[in-house]
Amino acid sequence: MAIRDWPEDARPREKLLRRGAAALTDAELVAVFLRTGMVGKSAVDLGRELLERFGGLGGLCRADRRAACAAPGVGEAKYALLQAVMEMARRTLAEDMRSGDALTSPDAVRDYLRLLLRGKEYEVFCCVFLDAQHRVIAVEELFRGTLTQTSVYPREIVRRALHHNAAALVLAHNHPSGSTEPSPADHRLTRHLAEALALVDVRVLDHFIVAGPSALSFREAGHL
Questions:
Q1: Can you tell me the distance from the alpha carbon of 77 to that of 144, in angstroms, rounded to the nearest whole number?
Q2: What distance in Å separates the CA atoms of residue 47 and residue 26, rounded to the nearest whole number?
Q3: Which of 65, 85, 129, 136 fits a disulfide with 164 by CB distance 3.0 to 4.6 angstroms?
Q4: 97 C-beta neighbours (distance < 10 Å), count
Protein backbone atom coordinates (compact mmCIF):
# COMPACT_ATOMS: atom_id res chain seq x y z
CA MET A 1 0.00 0.00 0.00
CA ALA A 2 1.33 3.43 -0.94
CA ILE A 3 1.85 5.93 1.87
CA ARG A 4 -0.78 8.23 0.36
CA ASP A 5 -3.33 5.50 1.12
CA TRP A 6 -2.32 5.26 4.79
CA PRO A 7 -4.36 6.97 7.51
CA GLU A 8 -3.23 10.58 7.69
CA ASP A 9 -1.86 10.28 11.23
CA ALA A 10 0.40 7.39 10.12
CA ARG A 11 2.03 9.17 7.18
CA PRO A 12 5.62 10.17 8.03
CA ARG A 13 5.46 13.71 6.68
CA GLU A 14 2.17 14.54 8.37
CA LYS A 15 3.38 12.90 11.57
CA LEU A 16 6.51 15.07 11.50
CA LEU A 17 4.52 18.25 10.99
CA ARG A 18 2.08 17.37 13.75
CA ARG A 19 4.39 15.88 16.39
CA GLY A 20 7.91 16.96 15.39
CA ALA A 21 10.80 15.09 13.76
CA ALA A 22 11.81 13.38 17.02
CA ALA A 23 8.55 11.38 16.94
CA LEU A 24 9.54 9.56 13.73
CA THR A 25 11.36 6.24 13.57
CA ASP A 26 14.62 6.05 11.63
CA ALA A 27 12.83 4.40 8.71
CA GLU A 28 10.18 7.15 8.71
CA LEU A 29 12.87 9.86 8.67
CA VAL A 30 14.49 8.19 5.66
CA ALA A 31 11.06 7.94 4.03
CA VAL A 32 10.55 11.72 4.36
CA PHE A 33 13.98 12.22 2.81
CA LEU A 34 13.27 9.79 -0.08
CA ARG A 35 9.76 11.22 -0.67
CA THR A 36 8.71 8.26 -2.82
CA GLY A 37 9.07 4.51 -2.76
CA MET A 38 9.36 1.99 -5.59
CA VAL A 39 6.99 -0.42 -7.25
CA GLY A 40 5.73 -2.73 -4.52
CA LYS A 41 7.54 -0.85 -1.74
CA SER A 42 6.52 2.23 0.21
CA ALA A 43 9.11 4.86 1.10
CA VAL A 44 9.09 3.49 4.66
CA ASP A 45 9.78 -0.05 3.39
CA LEU A 46 12.60 1.30 1.29
CA GLY A 47 13.90 3.27 4.25
CA ARG A 48 14.06 0.10 6.35
CA GLU A 49 15.98 -1.68 3.59
CA LEU A 50 18.49 1.16 3.31
CA LEU A 51 19.05 1.22 7.07
CA GLU A 52 19.67 -2.52 7.04
CA ARG A 53 21.97 -2.25 4.03
CA PHE A 54 24.14 0.48 5.56
CA GLY A 55 23.90 -0.48 9.22
CA GLY A 56 21.74 2.41 10.40
CA LEU A 57 21.36 6.13 9.84
CA GLY A 58 25.03 6.85 10.48
CA GLY A 59 26.15 4.35 7.88
CA LEU A 60 23.70 5.71 5.33
CA CYS A 61 24.72 9.32 5.93
CA ARG A 62 28.43 8.46 5.67
CA ALA A 63 28.17 6.12 2.67
CA ASP A 64 30.44 7.03 -0.22
CA ARG A 65 29.06 8.08 -3.57
CA ARG A 66 29.43 4.73 -5.30
CA ALA A 67 27.80 2.71 -2.51
CA ALA A 68 24.96 5.19 -1.98
CA CYS A 69 24.12 5.59 -5.64
CA ALA A 70 24.08 1.81 -6.12
CA ALA A 71 21.38 1.43 -3.46
CA PRO A 72 17.78 1.16 -4.71
CA GLY A 73 15.89 4.43 -4.37
CA VAL A 74 18.92 6.69 -3.85
CA GLY A 75 20.78 7.67 -7.02
CA GLU A 76 22.85 10.77 -7.76
CA ALA A 77 20.19 13.36 -6.88
CA LYS A 78 19.38 11.84 -3.47
CA TYR A 79 23.08 11.35 -2.72
CA ALA A 80 23.74 15.03 -3.47
CA LEU A 81 20.83 16.03 -1.23
CA LEU A 82 22.13 13.80 1.57
CA GLN A 83 25.58 15.37 1.35
CA ALA A 84 24.01 18.83 1.50
CA VAL A 85 22.05 17.85 4.62
CA MET A 86 25.21 16.53 6.31
CA GLU A 87 27.13 19.68 5.46
CA MET A 88 24.29 21.83 6.81
CA ALA A 89 24.49 19.84 10.07
CA ARG A 90 28.26 20.34 10.27
CA ARG A 91 27.97 24.08 9.64
CA THR A 92 25.15 24.42 12.18
CA LEU A 93 27.28 22.73 14.84
CA ALA A 94 30.24 24.89 13.83
CA GLU A 95 28.11 28.01 14.38
CA ASP A 96 27.04 26.72 17.80
CA MET A 97 30.65 25.99 18.67
CA ARG A 98 31.81 29.45 17.60
CA SER A 99 29.12 31.19 19.65
CA GLY A 100 30.19 29.78 23.02
CA ASP A 101 33.16 29.30 25.33
CA ALA A 102 35.01 26.13 24.41
CA LEU A 103 36.19 25.62 28.00
CA THR A 104 32.96 26.13 29.95
CA SER A 105 30.61 24.73 27.27
CA PRO A 106 32.43 21.80 25.64
CA ASP A 107 29.32 20.00 24.36
CA ALA A 108 29.12 21.98 21.11
CA VAL A 109 32.81 21.32 20.45
CA ARG A 110 32.34 17.61 21.18
CA ASP A 111 29.28 17.35 18.90
CA TYR A 112 31.04 19.14 16.07
CA LEU A 113 34.15 16.96 16.33
CA ARG A 114 32.04 13.80 16.44
CA LEU A 115 30.28 14.77 13.23
CA LEU A 116 33.57 15.85 11.63
CA LEU A 117 35.65 12.78 12.51
CA ARG A 118 33.22 9.92 13.05
CA GLY A 119 33.26 7.22 10.40
CA LYS A 120 36.59 8.10 8.80
CA GLU A 121 38.54 4.99 7.88
CA TYR A 122 41.91 6.60 8.61
CA GLU A 123 43.28 8.62 11.50
CA VAL A 124 42.86 12.38 11.30
CA PHE A 125 44.38 14.93 13.67
CA CYS A 126 42.88 18.39 13.87
CA CYS A 127 43.04 21.51 16.02
CA VAL A 128 40.41 23.99 17.14
CA PHE A 129 42.16 27.34 17.53
CA LEU A 130 40.74 29.71 20.16
CA ASP A 131 41.14 33.36 21.13
CA ALA A 132 41.75 34.69 24.65
CA GLN A 133 38.02 34.35 25.47
CA HIS A 134 38.10 30.73 24.26
CA ARG A 135 36.00 31.54 21.20
CA VAL A 136 36.70 29.58 18.04
CA ILE A 137 38.96 31.24 15.48
CA ALA A 138 39.41 28.31 13.10
CA VAL A 139 39.27 24.54 12.83
CA GLU A 140 41.96 22.83 10.76
CA GLU A 141 42.72 19.25 9.80
CA LEU A 142 46.50 19.19 10.02
CA PHE A 143 47.51 15.55 9.63
CA ARG A 144 46.04 12.31 8.37
CA GLY A 145 47.42 8.81 8.43
CA THR A 146 46.47 5.14 8.26
CA LEU A 147 43.91 2.96 10.01
CA THR A 148 46.00 2.80 13.19
CA GLN A 149 48.29 5.81 13.35
CA THR A 150 49.22 9.21 12.01
CA SER A 151 52.32 11.36 12.32
CA VAL A 152 51.86 14.65 14.20
CA TYR A 153 54.47 17.39 14.00
CA PRO A 154 54.48 19.83 16.95
CA ARG A 155 56.34 22.48 14.95
CA GLU A 156 53.48 22.68 12.44
CA ILE A 157 50.87 23.01 15.21
CA VAL A 158 52.87 25.80 16.85
CA ARG A 159 53.23 27.52 13.47
CA ARG A 160 49.47 27.39 12.83
CA ALA A 161 48.69 28.61 16.35
CA LEU A 162 50.95 31.63 15.82
CA HIS A 163 49.41 32.20 12.39
CA HIS A 164 45.96 32.47 13.97
CA ASN A 165 47.27 34.45 16.95
CA ALA A 166 45.58 31.80 19.10
CA ALA A 167 45.64 31.96 22.89
CA ALA A 168 44.50 28.36 23.32
CA LEU A 169 43.47 25.33 21.34
CA VAL A 170 41.66 22.02 21.51
CA LEU A 171 43.31 18.93 20.02
CA ALA A 172 41.29 16.14 18.45
CA HIS A 173 41.81 12.92 16.59
CA ASN A 174 39.83 9.81 15.78
CA HIS A 175 40.35 6.12 16.49
CA PRO A 176 39.00 4.13 13.51
CA SER A 177 39.48 1.01 15.66
CA GLY A 178 36.38 2.03 17.62
CA SER A 179 37.85 2.57 21.11
CA THR A 180 38.12 5.98 22.76
CA GLU A 181 40.70 4.71 25.26
CA PRO A 182 43.85 6.87 24.96
CA SER A 183 46.99 4.94 24.10
CA PRO A 184 50.33 5.62 25.84
CA ALA A 185 51.34 7.40 22.62
CA ASP A 186 48.24 9.64 22.89
CA HIS A 187 49.23 10.63 26.43
CA ARG A 188 52.84 11.33 25.41
CA LEU A 189 51.76 13.38 22.41
CA THR A 190 49.35 15.46 24.47
CA ARG A 191 52.03 16.26 27.06
CA HIS A 192 54.59 17.03 24.35
CA LEU A 193 52.24 19.38 22.50
CA ALA A 194 51.17 21.13 25.71
CA GLU A 195 54.82 21.74 26.61
CA ALA A 196 55.73 22.97 23.10
CA LEU A 197 52.74 25.32 22.90
CA ALA A 198 53.35 26.67 26.41
CA LEU A 199 56.66 28.06 25.13
CA VAL A 200 54.67 30.45 22.89
CA ASP A 201 51.98 31.12 25.54
CA VAL A 202 49.32 28.95 23.93
CA ARG A 203 47.33 26.71 26.27
CA VAL A 204 45.97 23.26 25.40
CA LEU A 205 42.45 23.19 26.85
CA ASP A 206 41.46 19.67 25.91
CA HIS A 207 42.12 16.71 23.66
CA PHE A 208 39.18 14.75 22.26
CA ILE A 209 39.34 11.21 20.91
CA VAL A 210 36.43 10.32 18.64
CA ALA A 211 35.54 6.68 18.06
CA GLY A 212 32.20 5.68 16.58
CA PRO A 213 29.41 7.62 18.31
CA SER A 214 31.56 8.39 21.37
CA ALA A 215 34.07 11.11 22.15
CA LEU A 216 36.42 11.11 25.14
CA SER A 217 37.59 14.38 26.67
CA PHE A 218 41.07 14.26 28.24
CA ARG A 219 40.05 17.06 30.60
CA GLU A 220 36.87 15.37 31.78
CA ALA A 221 38.69 12.06 32.19
CA GLY A 222 41.37 13.72 34.32
CA HIS A 223 44.15 13.19 31.79
CA LEU A 224 44.86 16.90 31.29
A1: 30
A2: 8
A3: 129
A4: 23
Taking only the tens place, the pLDDT of each residue in 50-70 is 889 988 887 888 788 898 888
Q: Are 3 and 11 in contact (CB under 8 A)?
A: yes
Q: Which DSSP helix (H) or strand (E) runs through 117?
A: helix 107-117
Cα 41 to chain centroid, rounded: 31
Question: Considering just the CA atoms, what is the radius of gyration of the chain in Å?
Answer: 21
- CB-based contact 215:179 (threshold 8 Å): no
- Please state, in angstroms and rounded to a whole number, the distance separating the CA atoms of residues 171 and 189: 10
Cα gap 23→42, rounded to integer Å: 19
Phi/psi class of residue 36: alpha, beta or left (left: φ > 0; alpha: ψ in -120 to 50)?
A: beta
Average pLDDT value for residue range 92-119:
73
- For 22-47, what is the mean pLDDT? 84
What letter does residue 175 receive in the DSSP assignment?
-
